[in-house]
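Review this:
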Amino acid sequence: MKFIKAARHFAYYAVLIAAVTLTMLDSFVIARELEPVGVVIGGNPEDNGDFTFTTVTGGSPTAPTETTTPPTAPTTGSPESSSPTTTATEPATTAATPRVTTPSTSAKPPTNAVITADSYEDENISINIETIRRHDTQAYIAEVKIVNLRYFKTALANNTFGRNISEPTTVIAKRNNAILAINGDFYGFRRNGFVAREGVLYRSTSNDFEALVMHTDGTFSFFHEKSPPALENILNIWSFGPALVTDSQISVTVDQEIIASVLWSRNPRTAVGIIAPGHYIFFVSDGRTAESEGLSLYNMAEILLEYGCIDAYNLDGGGSSTMVFNGKIVNKPTPDGQVIRERRTSDILYIGY
């Protein structure tokens, strides 16, 4: 019994040392801008029309009815966003000239929004944040309803696509006037993995991960990066994973859960889920502290399914896990469980104008 226990401890620390070593080696890579692939793979989300929500007795939202028209694929330009303007006529190996993105300033928030400590409401956006406690862990569930995909946005650290370019989530959120924001997939930490933001493909090299696609009609789908689908009518692609919920079923496999439980145990987590087009869940949990142990992938999948997600996806967690609402950090981010502070990241998902 002692031998088995000792072997487990040895395996754990061996993996931990290897992970730290790889992290340190990667940190020596000089931060640099990268040329985006430069192919427009999604039209303007505004072209899809608005989502219409109705309310049943008791105030629970029903699935939205989409009043949409088929999107028209552009030949030039990009969606109203922080993405660069590029052309779709060049092959995927051609680099686009713009590398620095500019936050959109065309839409202004209404002046009559109703804002509380955990909610936001105007004619276009509804956000309600619920704090729950599960598995000895504090978790934060932001239910988001938007009337148009123009309010579901992404942003890059320093408004720049590239390796090891990072900023705290709060800084990126403030620059983009985000109402609600969570950290993304930390694409800049890795050399590979698909990256698409607001209709522009930045990177199309496989990381052997399961990727999340947000389509221009507001729906989600997943694909394995070794077998990518046709890259069209796509708004965003995130590369981290795995998928947590697929078609209203928990999809974390036994193998994935063993890796999460044995090697990384319970940790702070970040995820995004969809209830219906225009109706989303932003999820963050604490972890690594005496107050909150953290969640496994399966723990998180159970919660997201309970809250109505038909599809949900695991984003970068651990020290990166951060939720920001109206400029303030909602959760307790920690890199090591000893101090409460943000870790820099390369990108965010956010709701705003």
Summary: DSSP finds four helices and 24 strands in the chain. Confidence is low (pLDDT under 50) at residues 11-34, 54-105. The CA atoms of residues 272 and 282 lie 5 Å apart.
